[in-house]
Write a structure and sequence with these properties.
about 240 residues; alpha+beta; Nucleotidyltransferase, domain 5; five-stranded mixed beta sheet; four-stranded antiparallel beta sheet; 7 helices; about 25% strand; MULE_transposase_dom
Length: about 240
């Protein structure tokens, strides 16, 4: 690969690998068989000489795909989260003499991160099944004065949207998440819906015992949020 020649596998499985040069009339061939019981391969035949002029001059390589690059740079990416796609390009050029595009380097890096962290689709499937917050709520001390902080952050990954959260400080002076939701965007309607769920599922309505507590809500000054708080919690103190 470093010399710039491309190869095409003709047979590839767990026991045998056979490959030839991509130029059909070039005699370059390699045949190898797996040695049973150990992680080694026995090269049975290797025609080393290329008679073609297929050298690509380091401008790209079809065998140097994203999966190959991901396996090559996996340790670096796992050890350093700031290992960028540009650094992947530099490493492949240094080790193999092959220039790869930025997007191929990006895809390779994403393959490594997906293997380590999981993919976006799988993470979103797990959202409804997360019961850790509900278990924490059941064990929480709700007596007396309590303050709820409302925050939002925008999602910038594969799935866009806005994450709304509500949290407070528990009896151990630790942050206790009360509720969260992924919505399409931050506006009065999304905050109104979120606060209704918070009121009905966590805080309780006016007739519940929790209504006797003094509720204070802390948030930023987003206009839609201010209006939603006044609609859903009209008696609560609202600080900024």
């Amino acid at each position: 690969m470093k010399r710039g020649f491309e190869y095409a596998p003709t047979k590839c499985n767990d026991h045998k690998i056979t490959a030839r040069c991509r130029v059909s009339d070039c005699p370059w061939r390699i045949k190898a068989r797996h040695v049973p019981g150990i992680a080694q391969w026995w090269v049975k035949k290797f025609d080393l000489q290329h008679t073609c002029s297929r050298a690509i001059g380091g401008l790209g390589h079809r065998n140097c795909d994203a999966a190959f690059i991901a396996a090559f740079v996996r340790e670096q990416v796992v050890a350093n989260e700031k290992y960028t796609s540009k650094m992947v390009q530099t490493e492949i050029l240094r080790q193999h003499g092959i220039k790869i595009s930025y997007w191929k380097a990006y895809r390779a890096r994403e393959l490594v991160l997906q293997e380590v962290r999981g993919d976006f689709d799988g993470s979103f499937v797990l959202l409804p099944s997360d019961s850790s917050i509900q278990e924490a709520l059941q064990a929480a001390d709700w007596s007396g004065w309590y303050v709820i902080a409302l925050l939002r952050t925008f999602l910038t990954g594969k799935f866009r949207g806005c994450l709304l959260t509500a949290s407070c400080i528990d009896g151990n002076n630790c942050i206790l998440p009360l509720a969260w939701a992924v919505v399409q965007g931050e506006n009065r309607y999304s905050w109104h819906w979120f606060l209704e769920q918070l009121r009905d599922g966590v805080v309780g309505d006016r007739d519940s015992s929790r209504a006797n507590n003094v509720l204070t809500i802390v948030s930023d000054r987003q206009k839609g949020l201010i209006d939603a708080v006044s609609d859903v919690f009209p008696d609560a103190a609202h600080g900024y």
